[in-house]
Amino acid sequence: FSRGKLLQPKVFDLNTVVADFDRMLRRLVGENVQIELHSAREPCLVNADPSEVGRAVVNLCLNARDAMPVGGTLAIQTAHVTMTAAAARLHNLAAGRYVELRVRDTGMGMDTDTQSHIFEPFFTTKGFGKGTGMGLSTVLGIVEQSSGAIWCHSEIGHGTTFKVLLPAATAVPDTVKRTPSGLAEAPRGSEVILLVEDEAMVRKLAMAILQSRGYVILEARDGREGLAVCQAHQGTIDLLVSDVMMPELGGREMSEQILAMRPDISCKAADMSS
User: Fold this and answer.
1) CB within 8 A of 113, min separation 6: which ones?
2) Average pLDDT value for residue range 13-34
3) Distance of alpha carbon 187 from alpha carbon 33, whole angstroms
4) Model pLDDT for residues 69-118, shown as the tens digit of each residue
5) I want to staple 166 with a disulfide (CB 3.0 to 4.6 A). Which of 16, 148, 211, 245 is the partner?
6) Which residue has the higher pLDDT, 14 or 131?
7) Section 2-29 average pLDDT
């Protein structure tokens, strides 16, 4: 977040990105959350980094899921809007045509004081070990680097709506060869991977994807369990994939100790919930 990742923008249809994430989002938010997709009839062309915009969508949806612990409705909508000069100035934008992404939940909502802090790095209303406070600040960084804007409206007991505006593109979208399945050309392997992630849904999803490609997975729920699994496993561990922020023992500290035990292991640390 502090470095400001160098984006790789190209023209793409935002509707396509949202549709591609549909199945994964349904697994992430759980069965007690109903997802509604309302896409604009016309393509919503924007010039941005599609992978980072997709990451922003996932972060907004995970934030909505956490606001609905007993279930509810998550609605994702795309639309074309035209900003007048007066309206654009309110969000430090130029007047013109924009694509709007709206993510709305029917959760508990937030008071005005909480809303004033939600985009601050490390600010979180979740309990200890349940959130890094980087999800919404990362979304803000992605949107602003894409020359867009984001704002939030929320009321206690009436849910929350996030609106993202990205400048509309007029160029023809970049074409890439697509396969019937998103994993059709993903690499396969037989290596042993130690997967450490404290959020159960994210860990299970990562396991399912990796196992479907032939990898052998050793799972752990936190850093201390990751160390114990590493010590107990008698065979080779080819790769450590770990979340960074975890309670008690973080991913970086754990990886340093594992490297001391197994200097040949490869390590990959990431905020997997993002």
Assistant:
1) none
2) 81
3) 32
4) 888 999 999 999 999 999 999 888 999 999 999 999 999 888 888 878 88
5) 148
6) 14
7) 77
CB-CB neighbours of 48 under 10 Å: 26
Phi/psi of residue 100, nearest 5 degrees: -105, 130
Q: What is the C-alpha separation between 241 and 140, in angstroms, rounded?
A: 26
Cβ atoms within 10 Å, residue 242: 25
| Residues 6 or more apart in contact with residue 23 via CB below 8 angstroms | none
Encode 215-257 in three state secondary structure: CEEEEECCHHHHHHHHHHCCCCCCEEEEECCCCCCCHHHHHHH
Give the DSSP letter of residue 162. E
Spell out the long-range contacts of 251-260 with Cβ–Cβ below 8 A and sequence spacing 24 or more.
Answer: 251/196, 251/223, 253/223, 254/196, 254/223, 254/224, 254/226, 254/227, 257/227, 258/194, 258/226, 258/227, 258/230
With H, G, I as helix, E, B as strand and everything else as coil, classify residue 65. helix
**Number of CB atoms found within 10 A of residue 265's CB:** 17
Paired residues of 195 in beta bridges: 219, 241
CB atoms within 10 A of CB 84: 9
d(CA 166, CA 40): 14
212 SS3 class: helix
Of the CA atoms within 13 Å of residue 56, those in its CB half-sphere come to 31
- Segment 258-274, tens digit of pLDDT: 988 888 888 766 655 55
pLDDT above 90: residue 211: no
Amino acid letter, residue 160 = T
**224/235 Cα distance (integer angstroms):** 19
In sequence order, what are the beta bridge partners of 96? 83
- Does this model's pTM top 0.85? My answer is no
- Cα 35 from chain centre: 16
Structure tokens at 38: 């309302």
